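[stage:ingest] chain + small molecule (adenosine-5'-diphosphate)
[stage:ingest] validated
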Amino acid sequence: MAVGPDTPITQLAGVGEARAKKLTKLGLAQAADLLTYYPRDYEDRRKIYTLREAPVGQRVCVAAMAAEHPRKARIRQGLELVQLKVVDHTGALHLTFFNQGYVEKALRAGEEYIFFGTVEEQGRRRAMVNPIFERADSQSFTGRIMPIYRLTAGISNHLMASLIRQVLPCADSLADTLPQRIRQEQGLASTQFAVQNIHFPADEEALELARKRLTFEELFYFSVGLSFLKGRREGECSGCSILPRPLEEFRALLPFELTQAQRRVMEEMAADMAAGRPMNRLVQGDVGSGKTVVAAYAAWLTVKNGHQAALMAPTEVLAEQHARSLSSLLSPAGVQVALLTGSMGAAEKKRVRTALASGDIDFVVGTHALISDGVEFRDLALMVADEQHRFGVAQRAALAAKGDRPPHVLVMSATPIPRTLALIVYGDLDISVIDQLPPGRTPVETFVVREDKRQRMYGFVRKQVQEGRQVYIICPAVEERSEEELALAAREGASPPMDLKAVKTYAVQLQEQVFPNLKVDFLHGRMKSREKEAVMAAFHRGDTQVLVSTTVVEVGVDVPNASLIIVENADRFGLSQLHQLRGRVGRGRHQSYCVLITATRNPESMARLRTLASTTDGFKIAEEDLKARGPGDFFGNRQHGLPQMKIADLAGDMRLLNLAQEAAKQLLEEDPELSAPEDRPVLERVRQLFAATPDIFN
Ligand code: ADP
Ligand code: MG
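[stage:predict] done
[stage:export] tokens:
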């Protein structure tokens, strides 16, 4: 059968209905999907050893002859063995196959095979369990560099490799979408060569060439897409022009002096907004650097110019806090601030929506509900997104499509992201950095402690409260784990999360048994918006002294009187997340503390926690995190809204990224619309790549 790019996988040998289902889960529906299902790693199976020379304890290939007919034995219900001895001129090897009855017929006495597996020493004899084997005269998965794929239960690497081998011939019919001149300039291999060799490389050099071509290609299409985005905005002169006003007028509303860094960023923003084209600016500043007031300034300017502003926060808790504090800051200046979140009552939501449409509300603060359908503004001119890593290009694009003209966009983030990632994810934004903390802050003292210090730690809580301070206790969010996740954890043999501190139970226990004289309360993501708001308000007022919470307080929550944060099961959190949590304290005048309590026996986890204790530098911490967890984790569930990279390693391909961006820029200068016949395939590819990202091309 001839396989073409759109041949369904069900037509491939070895794929029945059950396997087809599993493959679909991996995003593999037709031959072309398999072609771009790149290996995650490789195994060098080129060297073929004699039985004597084969090193023990490593996966290797050996060439040997079956010395006898395989013996099949049923040990008990569900356990079947096939055994045989193989030999070469240097020695013998004993093979055992578990539950692979077909082997009895597949191996024939007197024939030569290549076996791939781990050589073990069993007393004086050498053995191999469940090797992969092929006849010596028809090798396809031994004696070569073998691809290793990402798999799912029921799909073995062997099967995946054999499927890809089946579809590989149709790589010949793939058109090369990279313009010839770019391929020549960059010294890139052809599509056919790259696809063949990324899966089944002829040698290291071929693999390197294949990888270079495909990585370049991916980054190139990506850069072209981002340039389109950016170019479209720059072409737009239709942004709303916001006239500047003296900073002093705004300063008079504040109880503190602005830092130099805050002033600088405010001026940059004001210049953007006055310029007539839509602002697209990212403000980066470590936790506690004072980003909120910068956003408040932009909103104030906007409203004073007679337009509306909106601020979007990643959680309801944070939205409520921002609404409260921005309202008290800006209402003396005559700015009407309102809250809009998904879990507000229908009637109340409707009231806010109507007021937004009529223009009675100047500045709305909310969650994602803000960009959901049905919210209309009379005249939205500014959108602020707090904690940008949860607010990607897709959302920004959806937003730009909202009004008659695209609003100014300001995104604020405390997460310092490494440079490659920043270029890619925020490649279409201008960046300002608040590189200075407000004066009088003393760094938070961080301690890593074990269970034996628990009572002392509770004593420390009492002492802080006696001095008038407040305390957070953070637990992993067990209550927010879905049934599915729990089931999965159970299947993988993880112990049930019994030892984890579940928020509510723990709070009750603390109140009754540990702090009978203090007021303890709790907060978690499953509570109703009203309840959450009430709990946070009580903590703000100082009515509650100890707040037991999940990570819903992770980003942005600001209660300057809180001076101690305790994180239970600290080893379960990522470093950047712990850094964010720690940023909840040390926001006022008081010396503040962060206690990370853990029962882990894992030396690496301990080392990670100690890193956090030894530095407060957010960039250093983010880098450690990236090393430990990889870029995929950085944004959670692909929340950046950009196409997923199949091959480019975002943390490492800086040089190729620069080349790709350069080439993209040059191409668009020569042919801005990509209308030349040779460039049209590029446009097609970019369209496909950004298919999930709305509004790039209209
Ligand atoms: P983040 O950058 O983490 O969002 P916030 O905007 O929440 O930080 O500010 C942290 C705290 O610092 C708040 O209580 C805020 O009122 C205060 N703050 C902000 N700027 C200044 C300043 N220039 N001087 C003193 N306090 C400030
Ligand atoms: Mg903040």
